[in-house]
Amino acid sequence: MSDVIVSAEGIGVLVGDERWLFRDLDLAVARGRCLALTGENGSGKSTLLRCLYGVQDPTEGTVEVAGRTPDETDAAFRRDVSVLFDDSAVFDEFTPGQHFDLLGGGQPAHDLPEVPARGLSAGQRRRLLLLGALTKPHKVLLLDEPERAVDAAGRDWLKQMVNAAKGAGSAVVLASHFPPLVDAVADEVIDL
Ligand SMILES: Nc1ncnc2c1ncn2[C@@H]1O[C@H](COP(=O)(O)OP(=O)(O)OP(=O)(O)O)[C@@H](O)[C@H]1O
């Protein structure tokens, strides 16, 4: 049986009347593997991740994630897929521990202060979101520029966490502008 859990065939996204962000794109990511999406600003990395999470339909082609056509409104799909996107947000009134209680994956080791999230710095909130995405039980992990707002120590931690997720069997797709992260975690790279 194939371990591929994220796949796309012939996908393309047309913006406006005639500009294809990407087209005829195939990808396949197996459990325990990581695909990195690289490319300049506006090249379509976030758009491709949105297609994998079912926030946006590709103009053409097919996508299958965790055995389904992606649909973020489907609770069963969301249970299998963990995400960190640009618009991911913390609950301002909840402490880190309360966030992890909600996510049901136990309490990860961390050094975030146990205060309501509104009192965390931008980088600490980003780390809380990352920890949440990584801690929540999942089969597929989609991360959009996870390195953003994270300090040097946090970026090293991020490499370890993504590799640990792979080791636990996650299929990871991440968009990144940070080559050391891509080098440390990616098994395959698509440069859009
Ligand atoms: N309906 C649309 N009409 C015109 N342009 C669009 C439409 N939808 C998206 N775009 C453009 O397509 C591009 C895709 O952006 P996207 O966020 O996917 O790129 P990205 O590679 O993630 O960029 P970054 O590295 O800056 O995060 C953007 O330039 C956006 O303005």
TrEMBL record:
Assigned keywords, A-Z: Antibiotic resistance, ATP-binding, Nucleotide-binding, Transport
Keyword Transport: yes
UniProt GO cellular component terms: plasma membrane
Membrane topology term: Peripheral membrane protein
Protein location: Cell membrane
GO process annotations (BP): response to antibiotic
Family under the similarity heading: Belongs to the ABC transporter superfamily.
An annotated Gene Ontology molecular function: ATP hydrolysis activity
Stretches assigned to the ABC transporter domain: 6-192
Name the record gives this protein: ABC transporter
InterPro entries noted in UniProt: AAA+_ATPase (IPR003593), ABC_transporter-like_ATP-bd (IPR003439), ABC_transporter-like_CS (IPR017871), ABC_transporter_ATP-binding (IPR050763), P-loop_NTPase (IPR027417)
Keyword Nucleotide-binding assigned: yes
Principal localisation: membrane
